[in-house]
Amino acid sequence: GKYKDYLEPFLPNDMSEESREHNAQWINELWATYTGNLESRRQLPAGSIDDYVNNLDAHMALTDGDSAKLALEKNLVDKIASRRELTAALIDTAGKNQEGDNYNGVDANQYLADVRSKPNTENNKVAVLVAAGSILDGHQPDGNIGSESMHELLHQVQQDDNIKALVIRIDSGGGSAFASEIIRSEIIALRDKKIPIYISMGSVAASGGYWIATAADKIWAQPTTITGSIGVFGAFPTLEKSLEKMGIYTDGVGTTELAGAMRLDRPLTEKANKVVQQSVDNIYQRFITLVADAREQDKEAINEIAQGHVWTGNKAKEIGLVDELGTLSDAVKAIAQEANLKTYKVEFVQRPLSPKEEFLRSLTQGQVGALLPKSFIESFVSLSVLNEISPALQPLQALKNMNDPQGIYVQCLDCVAP
User: Fold this and answer.
1) Is residue 197 over pLDDT 60?
2) Closest Cα to residue 380, out of 402, 357, 401?
3) Nearest to residue 134, comparing CAs of 193, 61, 77, 208?
4) Which of 196, 225, 183 minimizes the C-alpha distance to 413?
5) Distance between CA 7 and CA 79 in Å, rounded?
6) What's the whole-number mean pLDDT along residues 170-185?
7) pLDDT at 60
């Protein structure tokens, strides 16, 4: 589709007009939502935030460059105070701690450990399964969505007779078309077991993320969720030009015209190009067909709002891509009501932890962990090189994640797990 722009950073030197159009649309919608909420909660006139930002230089001149004073004058903050003044105000509100040098409070880890130590004995469960990150083939670690990893988690749900409903929280810009279809079919199989399934969309649930979402009974999104991007691309990076600059060339013979056609050190041949394009066209037709079937709409109508176009949750509801707007909590409450559960507990579905991981979790979540320095806990964990990669190398990470067996992708945005 004309709006499917995931590969643009690898190809031209600037944005296409189509990419500029639909990205400007959703960015401006999010900005309008943000500024509207801010103006409402701070009781500011409509348009005052735009005026503040667009004329910041003129406003700053009136306060001699004092941005804190300007924020106070514009009612963005209630008071200007030093850290000591803030601490004194908190002591007045909550009293002093046992040492007498700070306000009376509790560490977040200690609080959570205390809350979690009180078991909920309710048998009926509403399961929540988090699918966050890029969609990849096979088993994947936390932070990505693996087709086999998701299969195993869904199997856990199926095996637990106390689970009466499932909410899948999607926070993904997509990825492998092959893996997305495997996950979608597994969700359909679980629905056939008469377990109601809702999708709750996070910050992004687009392309492959939306492909997965079509399998649910209902789709919930937040007003600012980035969704849609119903489109497909084929990507096969080749390095022959880079190798030529180093004086490295490739030649040889093959038994067929496609022999060696998918080598990284050779340009993609015209015949191989056609093969990939035909696969892309085929999967795009499958994508819009499954969306049309799931949303009970005409295929041509879906094609009109597809083409890789990105929508906000608000707009997606208007055009019929989602059913309801609300948070994860809203979706959980709604599915519990549908399942006729008067009492229930919410349980997050996670893969079984190794003994080492169990030990680390006990350190980070328990009372002991709250007293240990972070550096001590991190000494047990090997930090991933990918977490330290510089921003300049991020495009290479995107290429690394392209592991679809057919080289076909339903990818919109890179999504960082919250």
Assistant:
1) yes
2) 357
3) 208
4) 225
5) 47
6) 95
7) 95
Two tokens, residue 337: 């009501």
Query: Rounded to an integer, what distance in angstroms lies between the CA atom of residue 19 and that of residue 313?
Result: 19
Rounded CA-CA distance 122/345 in Å is 6
Distances (CA, A) of 217 to 99, 155, 167, 179, 213: 54, 18, 10, 21, 9
pLDDT at 365: 55
Q: What is the pLDDT of residues 29-50, one digit of tens each?
A: 999 999 999 999 999 999 999 9
Question: What CA–CA distance (Å, rounded) separates 144 from 166?
Answer: 20
Nearest to 236 by CA among 188, 279, 294: 279
pLDDT of amino acid 110: 86
Tally of CB atoms within 10 A around 179: 31
11: tokens are 């190809």
Active site residue 193: no
Structure confidence at residue 98 (pLDDT): 87
Q: What is the rounded distance in angstroms from the CA atom of residue 127 to the CA atom of residue 169?
A: 10
Of the residues 207, 229, 315, 317, only one is catalytic, namely 207
Give catalytic status of residue 207 as yes or no. Answer: yes
Provide the token pair at 150.
Answer: 């998701």
d(CA 192, CA 225): 28
Contact between residue 214 and residue 201 where contact means Cβ atoms under 8 Å apart: no
For residue 319, give the amino acid letter: I
First to last CA, the chain: 29
Q: Are 319 and 232 in contact (CB under 8 A)?
A: no
